[in-house]
């Protein structure tokens, strides 16, 4: 594993989990909490350090509560200056280490980037002006991550498949992710993804 100096892995785990009905970060995935699984993926991808955006001890709480992913990203950028940030939501358990490394490589080559399948995960460069730009958007109520990435002229990368970007927001999608994990050879199209 190659360490990427100055790249901080960021797990977004501050949502209310309303559609899931319980805290997604604490759901068990492969014998451990989902939060631990995602953090381990970021370490394996070569991040120099890993932080969690969440209102809990040892985590980074939002300055602008209830503002979604951008609120969590803003808090981390403001508190932890770095050369780059690999941002991953806690509820994408099927993301591979290879896809995460691809974002780091893409960030090194192009700056801000994400995969065409989804705005998350994404890579943000350590531009010192980003926290202020994000704060302006948050104060305006402009909470769309896609709009922010487009404003940054982030590059959309190719890679992965639909299953890798499965966002487990509901009990149904959680079951689907577990089924895919148990049977990784089943093509996603056969099970309705």
Q: What is the fold's blueprint, element by element?
A:
Blueprint: E1 4-12, E2 28-29, E3 32-33, H1 34-44, E4 47-53, H2 68-79, E5 84-89, H3 97-110, E6 113-115, E7 118-125, H4 130-140, H5 145-151, E8 155-157, H6 171-182
3D structure, described in words:
The chain has 193 residues and is of the alpha/beta class. It has a single domain (4-160), classed as Spore Coat Polysaccharide Biosynthesis Protein SpsA, Chain A. The protein has helices at residues 34-44, 68-79, 97-110, 130-140, 145-151, 171-182; strands at 4-12, 28-29, 32-33, 47-53, 84-89, 113-115, 118-125, 155-157. The strands form two sheets. It has a six-stranded mixed β-sheet, sandwiched between helices. Helix 2 packs antiparallel against helix 4 (130-140). The radius of gyration is 16 Å and the shape is globular. The two termini are 31 Å apart. Residues 185-193 have low confidence and may be disordered.
């Amino acid at each position: 594993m190659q360490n990427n100096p100055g790249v901080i892995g960021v797990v977004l785990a501050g949502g209310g989990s309303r559609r899931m009905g319980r805290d997604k970060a604490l759901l068990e995935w492969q014998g451990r909490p989902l939060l631990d699984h995602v953090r381990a993926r970021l370490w394996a991808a070569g991040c120099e350090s890993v932080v969690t955006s969440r209102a809990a001890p040892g985590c980074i709480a939002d300055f602008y509560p209830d503002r979604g992913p951008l609120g969590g990203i803003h808090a981390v950028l403001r508190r932890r200056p770095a050369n780059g940030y690999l941002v991953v939501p806690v509820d994408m358990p099927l993301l591979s280490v290879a896809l995460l490394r691809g974002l780091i490589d893409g960030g090194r080559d192009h700056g801000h980037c994400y995969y065409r399948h989804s705005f998350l995960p994404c890579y943000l460069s350590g531009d010192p002006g980003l926290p202020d730009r994000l704060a302006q958007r948050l104060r305006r109520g402009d909470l769309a991550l896609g709009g922010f990435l487009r404003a940054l002229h982030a590059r959309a990368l190719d890679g992965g498949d639909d299953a890798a970007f499965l966002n487990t927001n509901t009990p149904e999608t959680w079951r689907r992710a577990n089924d895919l994990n148990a049977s990784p050879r089943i093509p996603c199209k056969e099970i309705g993804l």
